Amino acid sequence: MANHVDAIVIGAGFSGIYMTYKLREEGFTVKTLEKAAGVGGVWFLARYPGARCDSDSIYYNYIFSEELYKKWSWSSRFAAQDEILSYLNFVADELDVKKEMQFNTEVKSAIWDEDQTKWLVITAQGEEFTATYLISGVGCLSTSSIPNFQGRESFKGESYHTGNWPHTPVDLNGKRVGVIGTGSSGVQSIPVIAEEAKEVYVFQRTPQYSVPTRNRQFTEEEIAQFKEAFLDAREIMLNSPSGLPIPRSTRSVVDTPEEERVAILEDAWEKGGMILNNAFYDIVIDPKSNELVSEFLRGKIREKVKKSDVVEHLLPYYYYSTKRPILDTNYHDTYNQDHVTLVNLRQQPIECITENGIQTTEKEYPLDIIVFATGYDAMTGTLLKLDIRGRNGVSLQEKWENGAKVETYLGLGLAGFPNFFTITGPQSPSVLTNVPTAIEQHVEWISDCLNYLREHNVKTIEPTVEAEVQWSKQCTEIANGTLFTKTESWYTGSNIDGKSRDFLIYLNGLDNYRQLCNEVAEHGYKGYQLQYEEIKA
Ligand code: NAP
């Protein structure tokens, strides 16, 4: 007989920690299953050199509890991976949720039992659990991806993916290191790798825009001020489109006179962080606006890179901000160093990996270490890897046609999958917001929903097909009105060979989304169908 709880939560990252706490506090029994050996989710795994958050640390945390917020002090503007992991352990200990968690436990499948109206969850370790509710807290970027380079297994040196970095130090000293990929992970790690390695070869397919982080240590006075301002900042975060204390911009790039526009961009550049991409409302809407900002950023790259034969290969021409905006510390300057070589894969694609290194169409690059900074099968990758089966044994792979037709309601629920909830699921605001703020909104909504079901003797809840179709259509229409869908990126799924292209993020802002979700709940879970318990006379 399987262990039964009210709710099983999959994953013990930001989502799983808060969901576990919230449900336990509401009197539900919870079991949280986590594949890794500890809490943290992606912050447990992505320990690559230079790994750091690119949201301001003082906002990249839980805000549901003033007491919790004030107990923790961030050391710097952008926290490093180890500090974020310490923070998540601190929270899990403060909330005392580790006792509800089982680590080193990988969920393999979850099957809806129609007769018993409960989920049967089976782990890779052979354990079985049953639960009335199944909640995914697997995150949007948790399945790392290494492209299928021919000959990869033959490489005799060491190789690592940035998203699965070893827990013991990797000695780069005196080594020839090849890094494939220049997304956030590559851009953060390359300057740090170059500090230690003897030679660095960056295998770049698409050049990147990047804005300086301007990271710095906080003073004690600043920390006291952040804590003092917490309630005001939280209020703005809860009512902003990004979940950050940045109000919705009403300024258009093209409509702002040149002198003023440049002054705004220069100011944002000097301040660093995510200010620049939030400075105007139409950067990702109007191609002309986008080009003005893109050209400003290309100008910064031209200023930084001193080698004239290298700089032209580092200039991006995609619509700025339609790939995830990148923050860096000394990224472009790194190419001024003589031991750093840029390999432009548009001119010489990788043919294969050999036992000695990387073979492009032009030459072989002998290497001791290969770093795959090649990203993630984002948004749907982890969910589709789990064998989740809803009504009539229909799997998620079947429902979503292996990713070709992803439909959800609010990014929170799926027709045909009763009592199943996805925190920051596809078609919710998720990765285009400050993710912890988006997570809190989902966790609180799900918790309120489960309370409602308990109070009203509801046996099952699931979205209607009509609501799901309507929501998915709306998400697509909003995305098609932007430049996001015109760029190859992990946002669109085009980073994964063979993956269907789709834009699975709700783009109308966390503020509007929160209101919509609240309205759904206030109207007795509009768009859902509820099946009630039979009350015995
Ligand atoms: P990513 O943004 O998807 O970047 C992957 C890189 O690998 C890209 O440069 C891509 O080139 C390249 N690549 C992929 N397949 C390739 C192939 N077959 N051949 C050559 N190059 C290939 O992945 P990421 O850097 O890990 O970042 C993913 C996301 O995680 C970020 O956008 C961010 O949301 C999150 N993240 C956040 C932080 C932070 O908070 N600081 C840090 C790391 C990651 P193309 O561009 O040409 O596809």
TrEMBL record:
Which controlled-vocabulary keywords does the entry list? Answer: FAD, Flavoprotein, Monooxygenase, NADP, Oxidoreductase
Name the domain of life this protein comes from: Bacteria
Q: Hey, what's the signal peptide range on this chain?
A: none
* Required co-factors: FAD
Molecular function in Gene Ontology: monooxygenase activity
Q: Which family does it belong to?
A: Belongs to the FAD-binding monooxygenase family.
Q: What is this protein called?
A: Cyclohexanone monooxygenase
Species name for this entry?
Solibacillus kalamii
